[in-house]
Amino acid sequence: MVKEPGRELRIKAEFDVIVCGGGPAGIAAAIAAARRGARTFLIEANGSLGGIWTSGLLSYILDGDDKDGIMREIFDRLGRLQARSGIVCDVETMKLVVEEMCIEAGVVVRLYTRVSAAYCDGQGRLYGIVTDSKSGKEAWGAGIFIDTTGDGDLAAQAGAGFDYGQEETGVTQPMSLIALVRAGPPETYKEFAVNNGRSVRLYPEIVRGGYNPTYAKAGMSHIRDQLYIMMANHQYGLSGLDADHLTRASMDSRQDLYRISEALRSLGGIWQDFRIVATAAAIGVREGRRIKGRYTVTIDDMLQGRRHEDAVCRVTFKVDVHSPNPQDSKGMAAYNDMYRNEVKPYDVPLRALIARDVDGLLMAGRCISGDFLAHSSYRVTGNAVPMGEAAGALAAAAVRMGVLPQYVPWQEVSDVLLPST
Ligand SMILES: Cc1cc2nc3c(=O)[nH]c(=O)nc-3n(C[C@H](O)[C@H](O)[C@H](O)COP(=O)(O)OP(=O)(O)OC[C@H]3O[C@@H](n4cnc5c(N)ncnc54)[C@H](O)[C@@H]3O)c2cc1C
What we know:
Blueprint: E1 11-20, H1 24-35, E2 40-43, H2 70-80, E3 84-85, E4 88-89, H3 91-105, E5 108-110, E6 114-120, E7 126-133, E8 136-147, H4 153-157, E9 162-164, E10 179-182, H5 202-208, E11 219-224, E12 227-231, H6 243-266, E13 275-279, E14 289-291, H7 299-304, E15 311-315, H8 334-339, E16 346-349, E17 361-363, H9 372-378, H10 381-401
Parallel strand pairs: 1-2, 1-8, 2-5, 8-17
Antiparallel strand pairs: 3-4, 6-7, 7-8, 9-14, 10-12, 10-13, 11-12, 15-16
The structure holds flavin-adenine dinucleotide.
């Protein structure tokens, strides 16, 4: 037993808005809040902003090309830097672009720092958090906090209720470690790495090379020159909320990816120059906590194509569950086919971004309030960005008006609401 002495930490700085997690949702939330005049602090655990786009090496933006606002700005900036090919973007340029946008907006950014505790007052309002980093433990205060950690770390630390995994079983989708790979010129790989999309024909080639990978829909997307993104493995039955599981998943994945690379190279021909350039700094976690909000987005919303007056994001992406059980399938779960022709575009309302149990707390990105199947659809990054933008706008309005987010009249954030249809 180690007995840690209790201690009081002086609040190092007070902000109007603190955003925890600098992925697609977090950068949009911070930029939106700062542009509206809120003194905004963005805290990120990894060494760059961008989350799955950068530390996760997956700059492949689904459901984003029909979005306005910050999502369009990111696409436009990447385009001007010749760093996108449709929805596939260059990872290094993405880091630069999102960091520049935060700096220009006046966001105070702290990298290499993880939120590790959160404290509410006697009325259940979140007022302070503690972070861990090379600088030790530090305490920070804010009027409004936004959880964009993907896993809902901040909300859970603050005592908010949440769901995790499939409702009946608690099982979660597998994780995947993305790799950047170098191969021959794209003309040679038309079948395996389609431009502006992902071919899933890599799997039979890997098997032909003598290795049976963990993901039967292994695929590559072309980024530029002879550089590709490869998603080719699944890590089953492990939790993204457990550091031991994350460690095992990352190390097993690297073994898997190395074997895949060896198998492909052994085929010679177009595969002879195939090499892994880098594996992601952080393994891709498809599912974390889904924090209880003032509205819960469900599969029924998808089936009905439900619209809301406080809609902030229209999702057009399908049910997309990667099989949690390799005995059933090493590809996609049966849900995907079951709902393929049933679901319609639907709205995420502002209320799904406001925590139910903790005051002064918003969520955006994959940790918002939703059920297992809806989450598999709205979680993609083209939706995380508008959700983040809306949460940032709402936080800034709440601070300006001196009220909790749930009491901000929707017309105060009309610029992030979708036109009613
Ligand atoms: C393997 C895989 C493949 C996917 N494929 C696609 C795809 O092709 N296209 C697509 O658009 N989407 C894809 N998705 C979905 C998409 O990646 C996520 O749903 C998306 O990242 C949601 O954005 P986010 O900002 O909510 O979360 P994230 O991108 O996960 O960002 C969360 C950020 O918070 C930080 N963080 C976490 N905990 C803490 C903490 N305690 N303190 C401080 N910071 C913290 C993390 O380091 C990270 O930067 C994929 C996901 C995975 C895992």
